[in-house]
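[Q] Does anyone have a clean structure-token version of this?
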Amino acid sequence: MFASPVNSNHIFSIHPVYVRQIKLMLGKAISEDTERTWERYIRIDRRVSWQVFAQISCIAVKTSNKSWLGLELGAAPSAVHGSLVVAALSAATYRDSLQVGVDYGRLRSIFTCELSDTADGYSVLRAVNDVDWGNAMRFAVDAVIGVTLKTCFTALGLWPEGVRVYIPLSKPEWAQKYSDFAPVEFIFSAKHLEFHFKTETLALPCIYADEKLHASAIKMCKSEIAELTQNSLSERVANYLFQIDTGIYPSLTDMADLIAMSPRTLIRKLKLEGTSYQFLLDAARQSQTLWFMQHTEMSFEEIAANLGYLDATNFSRTVKRWFNITPSQLRDQCRVISPINQIA
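[A] Here you go.
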């Protein structure tokens, strides 16, 4: 019935630096209720699932009243640190710098990047989205734009001529924020998120080029990628549970069979990683519950059925245990945080 949760080269989690930076940017604007909501879903010292990060970003946009918050996050100092950024900034040329993002960018983001040259003298960096961000899509896209352009300027020490950014979203009322952010051309309603640079720009030297530092940073990136793609047992199980959309979740025994170990061994190994199968199962169902509340008009009975509950009463009790509020109150909160219509 269930497919085996094998190791994957995909990384479906976000570096915790972005969560820390969002909290720092919001400062005292974070209410006690919002603080409790965040702490319920995240452990600040660990990578955050993209589903949870999407919820956090929607809360952050609503709390800050800044639809362009993703741009500010991408340009924040903490967003440009670590082995990945050190490798990009210490590269010999800007082409080498962009290639670092292509090879190791998923250490920070779950967007995958492709770099290619065109016949008209331009080179294109395309950021491909691997998941459905829902109402958090603009935030996610803007964060990628912010960090990419910030890194470009930092690497070269100037804004290169002829840069065009193609954005796969409609032009918002606050579009001037993009122009204020960087002196490049922004084109909306595009098919893909792309950064177009004159090919000659990619031959420019990075002002912080350092061969030894670059080699050391690349070695660290390779080590981190290997660790993440191998996946801990808890991440393998969590990724599998998050991808279930049938409402039919495996029991502990079923999951143990899928990963070829006994239930007792699964329990023991998850405990060594500081978690349990029930915790991972609850986290997956919580994320699905919030998604249904935000993005659909489904009845509670329908949501319960989609999450594998036999009846709405049991689902309501579980929601109360998870969130300390009723399903109706939770739906009201979700609509305040992120309305069903896409954020403009």
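[Q] Thanks! Anything notable?
[A] DSSP finds 16 helices and seven strands in the chain.
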